[in-house]
Amino acid sequence: MLGIHDTDREWSRWADHDPFYAVLSDSKYRNRQNLEIFFQTGEEHFKGVVQQFCQLGFPLLRQGQSMDYGCGVGRVLRPMADYFDCVVGIDVAISMLHEAEKYIHGKNVVLKHFNGKNLDDCLDEGIFEFIHSALVLQHIRPKRGFRILENLLQRLSPGGKAYIQLPVYAEKKWAYLINQIVTCHPALLKLSRRLLKKTQYKNDPTMQMNVYPADRLIHLFNHQKVKVISLDVKEDLKNSLLTVEWYLVKH
Question: What's 136's domain CATH number?
Answer without folding.
Answer: 3.40.50.150
